[in-house]
Every structure is written in structure tokens, then in C-alpha cells.
Amino acid sequence: MELKALSGMTLAELQQITADLELPKFTAMQMAAWIYQKQIFNIDEMTNLSKTVRERLSATFTLGRSLPAETQTSTDGTVKYLFRTISGDFVETVYIPTEDRATLCISSQVGCKMGCKFCMTGKQGFQGQLTPVDILNQIYSVPDFDKITNIVFMGQGEPLDNLDAVLRVTELLTARYGLAWSPKRITVSTVGLLSGLKKFLDQSDCNVAISLHFPFPEERIEWMPAEKAYPIEKVVALLKGYDFCKDLKRGEIRTTNHQRRLSFEYIMFKGINDTQRHAQGLVNLLRGLDCRVNLIPFHVIPNSPLRGCNADDMRIFRDYLTHHGVYTTIRASRGQDILAACGLLNTSRQEALKKGMRGQKN
Asked: Cβ–Cβ contacts within 10 Å for residue 202, how many?
């Protein structure tokens, strides 16, 4: 019999389990505390439950946690983890520590359907959805779990193409019985799946990041096929119907109580999207939105004609946007030497790993 995982269950679902097992109602809250507030890996660690209760739970359930299959550490301190999923696939997760924060970049799918031509995950193709258990395992099973200050759904996959799982995970991370995090510590990225984006905005208070990269639809569709189904102009029009927290420059006073932030990710490609015409296109497209633009260095991938911009060109582009009222930052590149930087995550080696694991069993 295959055991069901407790990780990923809501408090209501845990209460149903305790009712089915004729356990005291408060047992569900005890279980939730062990599952979501303490870094445990098996049911037997729930020491305030009797041995009999733990044995009854273990007969039907497992916790759903597993340690990384591989770990790589960059010279800049970034760490890339390879996790095996419940279905036997693999995904990559990146831990990015800085002086004042530690960000965990997690995956939502094995591969991706969106097919962006500048992304290694997109070139891998789509191979499967991650369950809430798989997504949560990336968070709870990293060695530096206690140091994480922020989580970004910017790893492998399109989060809004696996919306129900992503919504459940963000609910568990922000619930009182879960990690009780503020939603502003969590950012979900998307190329702009319209129906999913609206549902996410209506049901979650977490931050939103739009993978933009090209302000003009006719250029965006060439490199991002999703533009055909989800035009960026319609995405922006949808976003203008919601309130976001204004990114403040030094000396400005906050005039809104809204905490959710909106950002646009813009990878800069030399000679492709780095001209003043593109900067002006961004200004026109984003006019009226309280948002920030994050400029990202492009990391060359195999068989791609694209090249990245130099630092001076990125600063000139940033200064133009800032001067015209679009708050803009340049994101530092991290983990490039271990293929952990933006656009480089890929688990095409997973078949070799699977074969190796099958060989170990035989």
C-alpha cells in the first residue's frame, strides 16, 4: 500500500484524519505544528503524540520529506540542490544568501511548457507537475531552512500553470498553523497566464513578478511563445485593476496600506532589447502601475545566438527608466558557475540519475 503524505495537508484535512482515527480534536493542531513549524522528517519525531497514535498514523501516512539527491556550492555562496520528486523525477532549487537576507528559489514543475528560447528549463520541455508535497519538500529539506527569509517561485516551471498546488503551498506557508509567514515574503513569477493570474490575485496576497523581457508584442512572441495566448498588453491591463504597494525611493512617504508588490523581470540581451526605444516602450507599457523593473544579466546558454549586455549599458538603461518614473534595479548575478543563475536550471541529466538509482536497487 502506498502511503499518503501528511505534508501538504491543510488543518481541515488533518482534522478529518484525526476524526477518522477517533483521536482527540487537538491532535490535528499538534500534527500541524510538527509538520509545518518544526523541521522533522518522520512521524515518529512527533514526540507529544503517544507511541500508539504514531504507529497508527505511520501505518497509513508518511511525512513526505526527503533530503537533496545532490548539492552544488558556488564560489559566491549560492547553493543548488537537486531534489527527487514523488513521481521519481528531479527538480532544482537554489539557496541564495546575502548579507541581509536568504532567498530560496523553488520550482513548481518538472521542465516547463512555455518554451522561452533563452531559458534552459524551457528547452528541456514539460515533463510533469509538482505536487504540494514536492514543492514544500524543497523548502523544508534544505539544510539552511531556518535561515530562509524569502521564497520566490522562480525555479523550473510556470507557477500559474500549476496554480492549485502553488496556491495550496502559499496558503500553508502563510497560515497560522503553518509557517505563519507574511505574504510579502513570498513572490510568484509568471509569464502572464491570464486566467491563472486573475485567480491568484483574487485568492492570494503574495507578491507577483511578471516575466516581461520585451515591451513590444511582435518581439516578445518571437522569443516567448506564450505571448500568442497571453498578450503582455492584456496582462498589464489586468494588473491595472488591482492595487499594489508602491516601491518607495529614499525620502518618499508611503501613501497606501497595500503590502503586495508587483515587479517585472527584464533579462537584457545585447542588441535585441537594450535600446532607448525599448526603454521608452517599457515606460509606455507600465505607465500607471506601482511596480519595479528588475534588470537581469543574461547568462549564455548552448545553441543560442543571444548575448548579454555589459554593466555600463545596463546602468544606462536603468537610469533612463528611473528618470522617466519607472523604479528600476539591476539584479546581481549569483551561482553562474554552478548553472544556478536565472534561466540556467535544467534537469536533463535526470534519466542518467534514474538509471543509476535503478542499478543500485538491482
From this structure: 8
- Can you give the pLDDT at residue 350? 60
Burial class (CB in 10 A: 0-12, 13-18, 19+), 281: middle
Residue 258 burial by Cβ neighbours in a 10 Å radius (0-12, 13-18, 19+): middle
Residues of the chain with pLDDT under 70: 1, 247-258, 340-341, 348-362
CB 51 within 8 Å of CB 61:
no
Pick the CATH number of 4-62 from 1.10.150.530, 3.10.180.10, 1.10.10.350, 2.60.40.10: 1.10.150.530
Catalytic-role residue among 105, 116, 119, 342: 342
Copy the grid coordinates of residue 41: 522528517
* Domains in the chain: boundaries: 4-62, 70-350
Is residue 92 among the annotated active site residues?
A: yes
Q: How far apart are CA 209 and CA 244, in angstroms?
A: 12
Distance CA 88, CA 31 (A): 27
Regarding pTM above 0.85, the answer is yes
Asked about 233 being catalytic, the answer comes back as no
Q: Which stretches of 39-160 are DSSP H helices? A: 51-58, 120-124, 132-140
pLDDT tens-digit readout, 18-33:
999 999 999 999 999 9
CA triple 281-344-232, angle to 5 deg: 25
Using CB atoms within 10 Å of the CB of residue 129, give its burial: 0 to 12 exposed, 13 to 18 middle, 19+ buried. Answer: middle
Catalytic residue among 92, 158, 227, 265: 92
Which CATH number is 70-350 given?
3.20.20.70
Q: How far, in Å, are 83, 137, 149, 192, 332 from residue 95 at the CA level?
A: 13, 14, 11, 25, 14
| Domain 4-62 shares a fold with domain 70-350 | no
Nearest partner of 308 among 338, 323, 317, 215, judged by Cα: 317
